[in-house]
Amino acid sequence: MSPEEATDKGGAIYRYKHNSSYRRKIQLSVCIGYLAFTLGWVKGQVGPSFPDILQITGTDLERGSAFITSFYVGRIVGSLSGVLYDRCNKQLFLATVCMANGITVALIPWCSMFELMVAVYLLHGAFAAAMDVGSTATSFAVWGRESLVFYQAYQFLVSIGGILSPLAVAPFLGKSVHFSAEARPGTVNGLIVHNVTSWNISESLVQSNITYDGNVTMNSSDVATVEQSTEESILYIAYFIAAGLVFISGLPFIYFCEISIESEEAEEERVIQPDQNSITKETCDVQTQKVKNSQLTKKLAILNTCVFSGLYTAVELGMGNFLTVFCLRHMHWSKLNSVFAVSIFYLLFMIGRLFGIIIVKFFKSLKILGFCMVMTIISFAVFLACAYNLSDIGVWVCTGVAGLSISILFPTVVSWTNKAIAPMLGTVSTLVFVTSYVGPFINPPLLSFLMESYDYMWFCYVLLLECGLMCLTYVFMLWFGRRRRLHNEKRQQVET
Q: Could you give the CA distance from residue 230 to residue 452 in angstroms, rounded to a whole number?
């Protein structure tokens, strides 16, 4: 039975059994889905493990932000690989960058030297971005018009990795305490601290033979803040697990190296080639004029998508990477609760993307974006108010709502761009992913400087400002969508 007959006679299961081309697409999609899961896994462990990374290298928060900055510099460099992706075997490219990233991840917890850690984070970011660009471009190339739902599913798998990773990392983190004291001499469990009268202890100190490995600082209110590490980190186990998952994700693509897989749209275009002699000069002139008139609008729309993606990743990864530190040092939570806050964020993030797979079939992309933008602004504004008043319950709730609100913004915008503006292949994909990491590249040093030098509340101020700018890009998307709709109406009038 021919592939065409198999496609016409049955559903997805029938097509999988009788259409070899469709079967290869499903198999490749499963491999891409597992790759997406590993991307979420390594992304989700950055924030929870960051305090231990600082401990391993012996650096403070402001200086240690260079690790995350280096990671996103690598992301920018790795995103340029979209140009290379177009000029080589796609599946061999994915296999190579996945296995290389697996090896790099395994090296991270062993880099005690500051400079070496910066270099390894740079490589990690570059390989992770290459994985992201390659798998995304492959998804859109293979599924064509059907890629809207698949890309939502792709991002859903990324979020699953993001929610499971902090839970897997938590048992391997070094135990620590964080507490504050008012002025008066005193001791706790043999730990001598001057000017202490009362303690707010975030983790129990009912232990024997505690070795103090921390610092005591006094602020203008004569309140001492003590951070104590009671146990060495065994973070290398968590990173070894992550390295194995990432390395394995590259192996299946070796099987597809010699197989050409194209979307049905591409196959149809190859079979049905227009007769060039039948195209009149007048038709060519009309088509050329249309292309010229739409080029400027298309470029502006792509630029707007790039700005949005940069702001979006700045907000999402800002929450993922700095929420642990914020809860630990501003809210005075335990390290375990701070890590679980990241898990709550990614749990609701995952649920939102699960709903995204369904709702994109029933609502237009711009309407979905509008609703999510409003919810995002509200959630971050309330988060700021709750953090200012040290409301633990409010911070927990707003963290989850924020994850739910922003979850489907990025995949929806990318899919809308692919459908309404330009295909997310090659150069366009590279531009979007390169600029998507400019925001995270700026955020770590900015947040670290403001949080360390002024107030930890700057974490909330910066993220809320970025959400406001993200809403501004949505207004431009509405304008581009309206222009496209008017253009289509005029074209239909001319044809009739």
A: 24
